[in-house]
Amino acid sequence: MLLPDNPVKSGTILVVDDHLPNRELLDELLSSQGFKVVTAADGREALQQLRRQGIDLVLLDVMMPHLNGFQLCARIKADPDTCLIPVILVTALSDKQDRLDGIKAGADDFLTRPVDQAELLARVASSLRLKQRTDELERAESVLFTLAQSIEGKDPYTHGHCERLSELSAGLAYHLGLPEDQVLALRRAGVVHDIGKIAIPDSILLKPSSLSADEWKIVREHPVIGERICRPLKSFRNVLPIIRHHHERLDGSGYPDGLKGDRIPMTARVLQIVDVYDALTTERPYKPAFPIDRALETMRSEIERGWWDPLVFDEFAEFIHGETSEVSPSTTSRRELRSGR
Q1: Is 67 a domain residue?
Q2: 127 and 17 in one domain?
Q3: Each residue of 131-157: pLDDT tens digit?
C-alpha cells in the first residue's frame, strides 16, 4: 500500500481503541508505512500516553469504556498542550447526530468502519501535513517571542513589561467585548509590540539621559521595523496593525504615520492605554513607580491634550480597579468601542 503524492512518512500516531484486533490492524498498517505507533485501550490510558510523549495525530474509536471518543476528543481539544493535535474519529456510527457530536467535540476528521486502507492513509497523511505546518508556525512564533523577551531583558527597568501588557491587554479586550481574534491579537502583540527595537543600537535604547532629535528619529522607526519582522507570519495579520500603530495619538501627533482618531485601529488604542499605564506604574530611571490613582490621573490629563481614546480609558479605569463604576458607559458607547469607532 502506497501513500498518496507528497507523502508524510514521519510522525507519532496514537491509536485508541478498546478492541485489540482493531489496534493491531492499525498498528501494523501504519508501522509498515514508517510511522511510529503507540496504542491505548481506553480514554484514560490515552491521556497517559499524551502526557508521556509527543503525539502528532490521534486515531480515536468512539465507543469505548471510561471515556468515550467524544469525551476524550473534547478533553484533548480543551487542553492547551494538546489542542493542536489532529483527531480523527474512527467509528461504525453513521448517524448525522453522531457526526455533529464529533464536530462539537473538536474532531478534525472522520473515518467510517470498515476502514478503507487507502482512505485511511490519505487522511493520515493530510492531517500530519497540517500538524507539521502548525508546528513550524509555533516554532516561528516561539522565536519571535524569545527575541522580544531578549530585547526586554536588556533593560532591568522593563522586566516583565511584555508579560504584563499581554495579560492586561487581553483582559481589557474581554472587558470591552471585543471579538476573540482581536483578544488573541492583543495577547500576542503585548509580547512582540516592541520587537522592532532589535534594530535600535543599545547606545540609544539604554541611554540614561535625554535623546537627541536624531536619536528620537531612529527610535521612532521601531514600529515599522517590528511590523516588517512579523509580516511573514500569516497568523499575525491582526497583530501587525497593533505593532505599527501603538504609538499613534488621537490628535495625530504620534508616530510612525500620524494617524488621527478612528483611523487608529481599536486594538492599537487598547494596547497604547495599557502600555502607558504600565510605564507609569513601574519604576524607570527618570521616575519612581506611580500608584494606580496617580497614574490614572496623569493619563486623564494626557486625554485632555488629545492623546488617548477617552472611552477606552474609562473602560480601562473600571477594569483596572476590578469593580463596576457607579456610572457605567452607555450601551451605545460600548457598541462604538466594539465596532472600533
Answers
A1: yes
A2: yes
A3: 887 777 777 777 787 878 777 777 666
